[in-house]
Write a structure and sequence with these properties.
Blueprint (H helix, E strand, L loop, with lengths): L2 H32 L9 H7 L12 H7 L6 E10 L2 E8 L18 E4 L11 H12 L5 E7 L16 E6 L6 E5 L5 E5 L1 H7 L3 H4 L13 H26 L17 H26 L17 H4 L12 H8 L3 E9 L2 E8 L5 E4 L10 H8 L7 E7 L24 E6 L6 E4 L6 E5 L1 H15 L3 H4 L4 H53 L1
Helix pairs in contact: 1-7, 1-14, 7-8, 8-12, 8-14
Length: 528
């Protein structure tokens, strides 16, 4: 590399790095915070724990009768019974076709949902303050103070696209020890997010700043994705050119006259040079994998066709007059049931009786007795999910590199990852895998070649989602913190160097300004 090219690399890194190092330092420090405090979310486990238990002694309408009274006919995408809206038992019915379908997962609760009083069959269309406060009181428990804060469309803790179906959101302040802030759906009246005060405060130096969420919910919102993408690309360029410059300036064989391997006598430049060589690869990897988390320009989208869910379901979810009443189902399920969910599997309707913790019990929708799914029949039905041959069906009894669990607060954590499961491997052009729960017949997730590339280029490189580390905490914590601190050291020294250089340039410019103006002033003096 000739001297001119080296100079171009140096100048490019120097001035691009001034801004990039500020971003790097922010990302490294906030990344450490995110290891322990994530962006606010309400996991399904939290939601169930806060729902009041359903009572078998309370007379409730059977599903078909309640829906008929409410004037709702036709197949359903989802049907649930819970004390989730207004504190009393309600049916939450989502008609087929409501909300946005994604091919293999049900729409989130609230997306086109119709709330029906389970005692009378009346539709509860108005989500007003009284109903919101009743839902919040049921969530918080008896004797807990509440304060209604009105509605918002979006704020610092509700940027998630998964909440779009619930906007506008009602806010209720819980007067508990954690000063928990509840967000309730403007469509169904359910609690859809909780954010304790400590979580909110930590987020300002964690996920909120890490994901550049100050640019969300304002004039920059429509450009947020492009801003994040291009800042990441600029950061990668700054780190790569810095790495090249750092290697070229390091004396691997013959030291400089000072006896050092680095040419920089100043402490800050020396630290930046050495820390850059030590942590450049980590910095580049983390910025690149952060870019991959955005699925830039949809590079991981394969265009795979949606799953044929009717192959598993065997027909639409359509309540029947033969369906058992809730009291019979609850007596069969036992005490502590928080929610009943009607679903289709292998050509029949089953009811999932979900307790506050653990796996749901399976009940026959007509006889109300315990039931189970035939695994062989489930395998045969799963083979028809795609118009492609099945290469193999695996039964997983332990987590592996592609099916594993993370802590609930993490970006990819919080969803139910039961064991054992079935992995159906298709021989299609997209190398599709489908994970099935043999207990409920539910599709847990779908993976194809693009999503598996995302798993490696984002989850593995960014969060080090590698089971030998995840299963040996605090080893994972130690590795992540040491590397993050090293990257932060590299970034902070770059910020200090850039600040000093900018200061010198500004002082030189101010000093040069009067000298340039002086010759222009002389004619006016002499002419006087």
């Amino acid at each position: 590399m000739n001297g001119k090219t080296k100079r171009l690399f140096l100048l490019f890194h120097r001035w691009l790095g001034v801004g990039a190092c500020v971003l790097f330092a922010m990302w490294f420090v906030s990344g450490i915070v995110m290891m322990y405090v994530g962006y606010p979310k309400l996991t399904d486990a939290e939601r169930l724990q806060h729902l009041p238990p359903l009572s078998a002694s309370q007379p409730l309408l059977a599903p078909e009768q309640a829906l008929r009274t409410a004037g709702l006919a036709g197949p359903l995408k989802e049907l649930r019974l819970a004390a989730a809206s207004g504190g009393d038992p309600v049916y939450l019915a989502t008609p087929e076709g409501a909300g946005k379908a994604n091919g293999h997962k049900p729409a989130p609760p609230g997306s086109g949902v119709i709330v029906i009083d389970a005692r009378t069959g009346a539709r509860l269309d108005a989500v007003d303050e009284a109903r919101v406060m009743a839902s919040a009181a049921a969530w918080a428990g008896p004797g807990t103070g509440l304060r209604y804060l009105g509605t918002i469309d979006e704020d610092a803790f509700t940027h998630s696209r998964g909440l779009d179906a619930h906007r506008p959101l009602h806010r209720v302040q819980v007067l508990d020890a954690g000063a928990t802030l509840l967000y309730l759906s403007g469509r169904s009246g359910e609690v859809v997010r909780d954010a304790p005060r400590s979580e909110r405060l930590w987020n300002y130096v964690g996920a909120w700043i890490h994901w550049l969420y100050p640019l969300r919910g304002n004039a920059f919102d429509r450009y947020w994705t492009d801003i994040v993408n291009w800042l990441s690309i600029g950061g990668i360029a700054a780190a790569l050119t810095g790495t090249v410059v750092g290697i070229l300036r390091w004396r691997f064989t013959r030291p400089y006259k000072s006896g050092a391997r680095t040419p920089y006598p100043g402490r800050m430049m020396r630290w930046h040079h050495i820390s850059g060589l030590l942590f450049a690869l980590v910095t580049i990897t983390w910025i690149f994998s952060g870019l991959m988390s955005m699925n830039p320009w949809r590079v991981f989208d394969t265009g795979a066709a949606p799953l044929r869910m009717e192959a598993l379901q065997g027909g639409p979810l359509l309540p029947s007059p033969q369906d058992a009443a809730p009291d019979a189902l609850l007596r069969a399920a036992g005490s502590g049931v928080r929610e009943l969910r009607w679903t289709r599997a292998l050509g029949r309707t089953i009811v999932l009786a979900q307790p506050a913790n653990g796996r749901p019990g399976l009940l026959d929708s007509h006889g109300a007795g315990p039931t189970a799914l035939d695994e062989a029949a489930l395998r045969n039905a799963a083979a028809r999910l795609l118009p492609a041959p099945v290469a193999r069906v695996e039964r997983l009894a332990a987590y592996d590199l592609y099916y594993y669990t993370r802590d609930a607060h993490t970006m990819t954590g919080g969803s139910d990852r039961p064991l054992p499961i079935l992995r159906v491997v298709f021989g299609d052009a997209h190398a599709t895998w489908v994970h099935l729960d043999p207990h409920t017949g539910a599709v847990l997730n779908r993976s194809d070649s693009g999503r598996r590339w995302s798993r490696w280029l984002f989850a593995m490189l960014h969060s080090w989602d590698w089971l030998p580390l995840l299963e040996r905490r605090p080893l994972w914590d130690l590795v992540m913190i040491v590397l993050s601190v090293g990257g932060a050291l590299l970034s902070v020294t770059g910020v200090v160097i850039g600040w000093r250089r900018l200061g010198r340039k500004l002082r030189s410019a101010r000093k040069a300004a009067p000298e340039m103006a002086a010759p222009e002033a002389q004619p006016s003096v002499s002419s006087g």
